[in-house]
Amino acid sequence: MIPLQPPRRLVDVQIDGETVRVPEGSTILDACQAAGKDVPTLCYGDTLTPKNACRVCVVEVEGSRTLAPACSRKVEAGMTVGTDTERARHSRKVVLELLGSSVDLSTTPRAAGWIEEYGAEPGRFGDDAATVEQPAKVDNELYVRDYSKCIMCYKCVDACGDQWQNSFAIAVAGRGFDSHISTEFDAPLTDSACVYCGNCVEVCPTGALSFKSEFDMRAAGTWDESRQTQTTTICSYCGVGCNLTLHVQDNKIVKVSSPHDNPVTKGNLCVKGRFGYGYV
């Protein structure tokens, strides 16, 4: 039996002059997506509680003093929202410039397109702009931590913590510009509480966390998503019924993800489902 949620009242909101009807309790981002509006997001995760960390999705709400994060602000009946106003565009431009000047966004999907769309110029801060550049941490054969690409969105911490895995192997350490994701006492991942479920890799929006196979192929210049196929199947290790999406290039599995709309796992897997594909 599938439990049904109680019915929700529908409310009308204005999105860029267009009336959109969405269920009560929806976010502005939900309403924008229902209206076909492309609002950029980085820290938003459809299986996690929004943290409002990146501020790329801000929109202008009539009557509001400040810009509102679309990913978490709930809609209200009669609300008027502007997603492409001069104020919202300028804010996104500055955020993208700050991120682009301090973080490697080369593997962040759509980042280059957004930088071009909003006319962002990360280089205007100069060659001496502070960055988080550092060597990648390769201390196991399953996944790599390249924190030069980390935008501190907290998604990996939430996935590892009380929202999904409850391993609490990683957390935010430091303050201000020195804030970073770390294991306890900055120990190697192999000496931490990590259970290698890879759910942090699943939610990472920038490639700061990636499969070792993907990391090695990118370093060798052989990673090519245009040549990859995706096949969803069922994990054969146990009877839970987790769905796996196998990413295949040149007839070889290069990584495994999981559908976020799957009612069993909602994108999460265990170490066997995520990384135990060698027997194939």
Give an overview of the whole structure:
The chain contains seven helices and twelve strands. By secondary structure, the chain is α+β, with helices and mostly antiparallel strands. The protein folds into two domains: about 1-130, Ubiquitin-like (UB roll); about 145-275, Alpha-Beta Plaits, CATH 3.30.70.20. The strands form four sheets. A five-stranded mixed sheet has the order 2-1-5-3-4, with helices on both faces. Strand 1 and strand 2 form a beta hairpin. The radius of gyration is 20 Å and the shape is globular. The two termini are about 35 Å apart.
Q: Helices, strands, pairings?
A:
Blueprint: E1 10-15, E2 18-23, H1 28-34, E3 58-61, E4 68-69, E5 80-82, H2 86-102, H3 111-117, E6 143-145, H4 155-160, E7 170-173, E8 180-183, H5 199-203, E9 209-211, H6 212-220, E10 228-234, E11 243-249, E12 252-257, H7 271-275
Parallel strand pairs: 1-5
Antiparallel strand pairs: 1-2, 3-4, 3-5, 6-9, 7-8, 10-11, 11-12
